[in-house]
Fold:
Amino acid sequence: MHGSALVSWLLAALAAASGGYCLTRLRRTPPAPPPGAAEAGTAPRTPGPRRTGATGATRAHRLHAYESDASEALMGFGMAAMAVTGTAVPGVAWAWLFGPPAVALLLAAAYRPERRAHRLHHAVGALSMTYMALVMATAPAAGHAGHHPSAAGSPALTGALLLYFGGYALWSGSRLLSGAGGGPGGLPAASATLPRAWRLSMGIGMFAMLLTM
Structure:
């Protein structure tokens, strides 16, 4: 990736802070499941099958929360490390770090319909990191062709990823400002605001990293 050292360090700080926050969320119990599942589980003297269904919904919600936090922590720390080290670490190593999680997320999204959009977003992020890592592996050879660093990678794919993460940042930022799904009175609850803010920051960071290619 091309760019000044200041931009790289700012990206690293932003991504590391996002990854650290997601890592702390892994140590906490996730929030309660959606209202429908919670009501089914809190009704007194409910029959056995309903209690079993509520328990299964709670377990699935917690697994999804852990999966999301783990994916975002990996993305945050990976973005920070890649922004700082640049080509010092072989691009193939980064590709092996982000490639398998991307494939796993794609398979989970294909065979499990719940939270499919969330998994696909994380898969796109992991695939983008894999793409940038592979581009970094070939960038030095392209850089010797002239006096100025040339754009690496596929312009069409890079442009598509820029459109995706730029659109995601705008969408996520508008939801954050409007307080969609937040607390009473239109004010977003802190438990919902912080994850959205960190996801927005990682989306902006990914957009900036793609711009420096």
Remarks:
- Confidence is low (pLDDT under 50) at residues 31-46, 141-149, 182-188.
- The helical segments are 5-26, 35-42, 48-85, 91-111, 116-143, 155-178, 190-211.
